[in-house]
Specification:
alpha+beta; 3 helices
Length: 172
């Protein structure tokens, strides 16, 4: 499976002002550094949880043969069921084999395709995230970004157990 981020979030989950207030920083000399830390903190939380925090566009390509024990692709007899990485799924832009669009059904963070596609390369483009703005992010995830930001800024270890309910675990 290949997975590419095509369009990153247009904004970060924290404003510069929120970050400065949380870290109790009042000088402007740190602004550029803080902006890069905010992006790094978001990325870290996304990697820890396996989720897209804010709206972003992804491209996924799956080539046969699909592993029988794959946590992402399951053959249910009637359907080919694909778990969408980096949920929550907002919208499927396209589902194709080669250059031909294929019909699909969405079930939460899964896309269901005809089982006749089992031996074909499948390309899926989709939008994922909790929304487009900082306000759409669940408060525990926003706090997780703030905690990672503090840890990065202070160069101290962190306890991110508050993110555990948001982690995506795949059981094989």
């Amino acid at each position: 499976m290949q997975l590419f981020l095509k369009t990153p979030p247009l904004q970060e989950p924290l404003t510069l002002e929120e970050a400065k207030a949380y870290l109790r920083i009042s000088i402007k000399q740190e602004d550029s550094f803080l902006r890069s830390l905010i992006a790094a903190a978001r990325t870290h939380v996304e990697e820890l949880t396996g989720r897209s925090l804010l709206k972003q566009k992804w491209f996924m390509q799956i080539k046969p043969p699909y592993p029988q024990s794959s946590p992402l692709v399951k053959h249910t007899g009637k359907n080919l069921e694909i778990d969408i990485p980096h949920p929550p799924l907002m919208k499927i832009v396209s589902a194709k084999t080669e250059e031909t669009s294929v019909p699909f059904t969405v079930d939460e963070n899964k896309i269901l395709l005809s089982s006749s596609l089992w031996n074909k390369t499948i390309r899926i483009t989709y939008w994922a995230g909790y929304g487009e703005t900082q306000e759409s992010l669940p408060p525990p995830l926003k706090m997780g970004v703030l905690m990672v930001l503090r840890s990065f800024y202070d160069n101290q270890p962190m306890d991110l157990s508050l993110l555990n309910p948001f982690r995506i675990l795949h059981v094989i």
